[in-house]
Amino acid sequence: MTTLEEITDFLTKANKLVGKSSKDKYASQYDFILKKGHSYIYRKFTNEENEVLMDALKHVSQFKPKIKECYRNSYLLAGIGSKLGFQYCEGFAAGPIPVNHAWVDYNGLPIDITWRKNDIKSYTAKSLMAIVKNNLVDSSYYGINIPFQYVEKLFLRKKSFMSVIDNWEDGWPLMKKEFQFI
């Protein structure tokens, strides 16, 4: 498993390789994530968090989260739980190696319903909770929370699910200036 220290080391090295545009506030997505993001430290769910998450995961069966569709899965889960404090998050996550990834932040814990060793046949709250708990133990996460309204506006305009941070199609708008989410 890749540690948080290895993720930040990867982000630092990748940022140095990219270089800096003279006009942009951030040199790259790596620079943006290093400066604006945060790490996630493993802890167990409280009983209340467990109940809230199980209730939200009951609704996930409506869209059946798919492997390799982290932006879609995280957006839909964040929408289900937006009134419960779920926040869409992007950055880098790592099992064996760091990769661009999206997940949901719930009370400072990464809720990742995308990564799993095998596809599942039954999308029950119990089976999804097992995936979430496994990812908490087996993966590391470093990223930034992005307001749901910002993500939703981009996805609806683009008519697709994509990285909000690595939005090359729009010229990486988050890299241009000190970005304040409203």
SSE order: HHEHHEEEHEHH
The total tally of domains equals: 1
- SS summary, helix count: 7
Uncertain segments are none
**Arithmetic mean of pLDDT:** 89
Distance between the termini: 36 Å
Largest sheet: 5 strands, antiparallel
Write the layout of secondary structure elements.
Blueprint: H1 4-18, H2 29-36, E1 38-39, H3 47-60, H4 70-80, E2 87-94, E3 98-106, E4 109-111, H5 125-138, E5 140-146, H6 148-158, H7 173-176
Antiparallel strand pairs: 1-5, 2-3, 2-5, 3-4
Describe this structure in words.
The chain has 182 residues and is α+β, with helices and mostly antiparallel strands. It has one domain. The protein has helices spanning 4-18, 29-36, 47-60, 70-80, 125-138, 148-158, 173-176; strands at residues 38-39, 87-94, 98-106, 109-111, 140-146. Strands 1-5-2-3-4 form a five-stranded antiparallel beta sheet, sandwiched between helices. A hairpin with a 2-residue loop joins strand 3 and strand 4. Helix 1 crosses helix 2 and helix 3 (47-60) packs across helix 5 (125-138). The longest helix is centred in the first third of the chain and has 15 residues, at 4-18. The radius of gyration is 16 Å and the shape is globular. The mean pLDDT is 89.
